[in-house]
Amino acid sequence: MGRIALVGVGHWHAEMYLQALQALGEDVVAISDPDRDALDRVPLDCPRYRDVGSLLRDHEPEFVFAFAPHRDMTELAAQLVAAGQPFAMEKPMGLDWRQLAQVAQDAERRGVFAAVALVSRYFPLVTRLRQLKDAGELGRPVHLYYRLLAGPPRRYRDLHVPWMLDPLQAGAGPLYNFGPHVVDLFLRLADAQVATVSAAWSHGVYGEPIEDLAALLLVGSEGAVGVCEVGYTVPTAYERHFSLTTDALHYGGPIEAGRIIRRRGEPLEVTAALSATETYDVYVADTLVRFRQGRPAIATIQDMVPVLRVLNAARQACETGGTVRVSDL
Predict the structure, then answer these.
(1) Domains of the chain, residue spans
(2) Which of 8, 39, 154, 229 lies 20 to 30 Å (CA to CA) from residue 49?
(3) How many CA atoms lie within 13 A of 222 on its CB side?
(4) Burial class (CB in 10 A: 0-12, 13-18, 19+), 266
(5) What is the pLDDT of residues 28-49, one digit of tens each?
(6) What is the CATH code of the structural domain delimited by 3-116?
(7) 121-274+301-328: which CATH architecture?
(8) What predicted TM-score, i.e. pTM, was given to this entire model?
(9) Low-confidence residues of the chain, pLDDT below 70?
(10) What's the rounded Cα separation, in Å, for the pair 141 and 147?
């Protein structure tokens, strides 16, 4: 199998990737993180680096899975692109859509494979809806709703990533952590663009510097409305509810699996079920297959740019209590 490196292994998602790679029998040749303690926590017998450049020079990995605090992601992506290094990165890939857009342009110009973990695309329900869209059978989207709630934010201290509770490093709380998933599905299923964003957030539950919950109202360029809620407001575990209404069909229920109801004809069963954790297993395997076959990733750095632009608009709307035109950013 190929030579894989993990960069930024202190990130809480890195363990999920490592487990997926080990299940695939991939060879992890080196890891890096600026925090020595983070390196020591990884149960691997391989070289460890605190400097990404040294890892790349010494090992020339076939592929890199990359992680970093949100504010450092775009700089890391730029470093990997400049090195011509194929990679996949966790979302949101940064905090400023303009900076990320420049790196995305460089990646496209240099032909660097650059994927992003917008893993909600891998839910079988979402795959089926996208297939219907591509076949012209989805209909005209009217309304999309996605609620993604998780447990208390103190878990990030337990996971050795306290930076997630620092808005200067994380950008915000669930808005930038979970927001990419909900915004991406609106862009992927409802409209090509978001015209306006209204948003509000709450800081009333845990008293952390980050918000506890953010609620977004997206209005698409073709008239669809998206209501997206992301938060750390349930006592334990996760809650995911998804709904899509078009002039041809409707779905409402758990995003993991369900039945799509046609307005004309028979219901469409989505029999496959996939948990959120399993989406990462599928994502890691599929990303490597696509890279090795010379095909684009299911979600690329170019796809992340409009998502981050909407999130930037949402943060501005939260801060001002108004409505923001995405085109004004």
Answers:
(1) 3-116, 121-274+301-328
(2) 154
(3) 13
(4) exposed
(5) 999 999 999 999 999 999 999 9
(6) 3.40.50.720
(7) 2-Layer Sandwich (3.30)
(8) 0.95
(9) 1, 265-266, 269, 271
(10) 18
